[in-house]
């Protein structure tokens, strides 16, 4: 059925998918040695007094060069252990001090007199920092007990999440977001088996890893979905098809679940065709051309263009091979083949 694999993803079975995966060579590239001094500089910056001041002022802003994003980037590079303890401690303290430990949906949910864009977190943020802190050795449920309750509290009817609070007031459809769901799903996978994790994975699989929302409220996601096959790094809270595939593969592997071949096959086959040599080449740089809130000279906050650290700039260039994503793609293929051998890729 090799010819069918190249033309009709709906007609393949687990054996066909396994054959396509087996045809791609395993690659475990080291990071470019040129980024090692940049990693050292990122670590030094995180250990500095300036980082402590930044975290005391705000844990999240500005993008993409504040401690939050530096910590997330080190984690994405597999260098979580390099995050200084001082930065971890300050991050936990800053999150604990947020005026709101929830996702305010209505005006009445907000504490009085706060700057709303700084007073609470969103699902992308919580999923990201939950995962980073846990990998760095923080007992998140002890240090920040409200985070664990966050996921079931704000999960939508279809299992997804969205960082658009207005979507929670929509009653005639369920405008969840792939972008808003992925970081929570990744964190839920780390937390262990749960019905909440299963529902989030089902939402992503129900979209075939690649479809934008079919709703009126979130119609703009259908346009965004056209960019998802173009892989990116670092991802921050951005979505691409390899990220979605990696998340559901990790969920099935670690939580002892099955994966439906029909849901994953189109993305798997697309990736095996485009990256047949096993090397992932970056297709876009979504961190560019963004704006951010940042401290202003007068002590307030203002909007300015978002800035990349030297490390983020070096590892995000479209058209270049990405060692971190190449390693992820190899790990995903290996895990999918193990699931196939175990009979957990199902019709």
What is the overall pLDDT average? 96
* Beta-strand content estimate: under 5%
Task: Strand order, main sheet: write it out.
Answer: 1-4
Class from secondary-structure proportions: mainly alpha
Number of strands: 4
Total helix count? 17
Query: Low-confidence stretches at least 5 residues in length (pLDDT < 50)?
Result: 1-7
If you compute it from the alpha carbons, what radius of gyration comes out, rounded to the nearest whole angstrom? 20 Å
- Strand and helix order: HHHHHHHHHHHHHHEHEEHHE
What is the first-to-last residue Cα distance? 16 Å
Query: What percentage of residues falls in helices of 4 or more residues?
Result: 40-55%
Overview of this structure, please?
The chain has 347 residues and is mostly helical. Helix content is 49%, strand content 4%. A two-stranded parallel ribbon has the order 1-4. A two-stranded antiparallel ribbon has the order 2-3. Helix 2 packs parallel to helix 15, helix 2 runs antiparallel to helix 17 and helix 11 packs antiparallel against helix 12.
Summarize the helices and strands and which ones pair or pack.
Blueprint lengths: L1 H6 L6 H9 L13 H11 L2 H9 L9 H10 L8 H12 L19 H4 L3 H13 L4 H4 L2 H9 L23 H14 L3 H12 L13 H5 L16 H14 L4 E2 H14 L16 E5 L5 E5 L4 H5 L8 H19 L3 E2 L1
Parallel strand pairs: 1-4
Antiparallel strand pairs: 2-3
In short:
It contains 17 helices and four strands.
Give short descriptive properties of this protein.
single chain; 347 residues; mainly alpha; two-stranded parallel ribbon; two-stranded antiparallel sheet; 49% helix; 4% strand
């Amino acid at each position: 059925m090799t010819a069918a694999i190249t033309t009709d993803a709906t007609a393949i079975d687990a054996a066909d998918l396994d054959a396509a995966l087996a045809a791609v060579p395993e690659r475990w590239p080291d990071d470019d040695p040129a980024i090692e001094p940049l990693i050292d500089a990122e670590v030094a910056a995180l250990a500095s007094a300036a980082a402590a001041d930044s975290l005391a002022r705000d844990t999240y802003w500005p993008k993409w060069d504040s401690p939050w994003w530096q910590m997330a980037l080190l984690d994405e590079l597999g260098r979580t252990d390099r995050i200084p303890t001082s930065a971890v401690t300050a991050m936990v303290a800053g999150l604990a001090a947020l005026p709101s430990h929830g996702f305010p949906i209505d005006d009445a949910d907000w504490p009085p007199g706060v700057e709303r864009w700084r007073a609470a977190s969103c699902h992308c943020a919580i999923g990201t920092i939950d995962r980073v802190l846990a990998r760095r050795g923080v007992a998140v449920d002890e240090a920040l007990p409200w985070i664990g309750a966050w996921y079931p509290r704000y999960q939508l009817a279809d299992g997804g999440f969205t960082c658009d609070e207005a979507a929670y007031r929509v009653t005639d459809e369920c405008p969840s977001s792939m972008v808003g769901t992925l970081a929570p799903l990744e964190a839920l996978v780390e937390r262990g088996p749960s019905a909440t994790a299963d529902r989030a994975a089902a939402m992503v699989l129900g979209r075939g890893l690649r479809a934008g929302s079919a709703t009126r409220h979130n119609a703009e996601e259908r346009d965004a979905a056209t960019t998802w096959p173009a892989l990116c790094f670092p991802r921050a809270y951005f979505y691409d098809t390899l990220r979605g595939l990696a998340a559901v593969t990790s969920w099935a592997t670690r939580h002892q679940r099955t994966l439906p071949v029909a849901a994953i096959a189109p993305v798997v086959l697309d990736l095996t065709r485009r990256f047949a040599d096993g090397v992932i080449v970056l297709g876009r740089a979504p961190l560019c051309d963004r704006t951010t809130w940042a401290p202003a000279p007068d002590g307030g906050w203002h909007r300015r263009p978002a800035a990349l650290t030297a490390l983020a700039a070096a590892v995000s260039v479209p058209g270049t091979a990405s060692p971190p994503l190449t390693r992820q793609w190899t790990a995903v293929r290996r895990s999918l083949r193990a699931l196939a051998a175990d009979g957990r890729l199902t019709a």
